[in-house]
Design goal:
By secondary structure, this protein is mainly α. The protein is about 70% helix and about 0% strand.
């Protein structure tokens, strides 16, 4: 695995983790955030 592929994989992993964390926080304490409920 070269450096570009490793950096790309880490960027995708961090982005996925950030989206998952935001989704979890939005659905966990969703008192007035029922707009993104799918």
């Amino acid at each position: 695995m070269n450096i570009f592929t490793a950096g790309l994989a880490q960027a995708i992993f961090q982005l996925t983790l950030l989206i998952a964390l935001g989704w979890f926080m939005a659905h966990r304490g969703g008192s007035g955030r029922r707009l993104a409920s799918r």
